[in-house]
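chain below, 253 aa
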Amino acid sequence: MDNPLPKGINAKMLFLNTLKSLQNIIYPKICLVCKHKLAPKTQNLVCVECWRKIHKNLPPFCHRCGRQLKAPFIAKNICVSCLKKNLNFDRAFSPCIYEGSLKELIHDFKYKNKQHLGATLSRLMIDFINEYHVPIDVIDMIVPVPLHKTKLREREFNQAQVLSAHIARAFNKDVLTDTLLRHRHTRAQAELVADERANNVKDSFSIKGKDTLKGKHILLVDDVLTTGSTASEAALTLKDAGARIVFVLTLAN
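prediction:
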């Protein structure tokens, strides 16, 4: 039987496969959490054992911040923290809890320039949307929480924008990356106590092209929701520009 492939293709494929096999021997894939060797053909960056150790955020959820509710607040559908705050977003969702192996992965993603982790981490968000029927169908557009240009230069990418791109691709949504702007450089929220965070981000966002948002339902995406101050201030800016509903989706809370 004649070879259906053009001459030289088989030799090229053999060479590439050999090169890949040598690469796996010299530079084996390792789990980004436990550093143990991964199977050569796996597409995952985290081993099965470490993936199982990621602490999932489980129902019942607070209908404001999205955290798991504890008794006696289950009947109220809102946690004690949200009872004391005035949050500007309509509801927040998070698939995971910010601790353990996931905390380490998010740190590597943000601060060690590992953009490729966005594909792995966004799977948690996409699976959560499907499993818990997050109302993605009513969303008109996805907006990542922006970084100030100074921080963007330091980090070289916006982790929220990377996550947004994967989510948008999964659900066929548009991402607005240049509408919500961060015009004021602020201290990192992680450096501040809860009471300082709201003042730190106050009036730090602005809008370019307000007509784009009028009457729209927005999914605001970030990596972590802690006190909700950043998401709340961003949601207020979006609503002042005409957005009707702002849901928040973060990787962890």
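DSSP finds nine helices and seven strands in the chain. The longest strand covers residues 217-224.
thats it, cya
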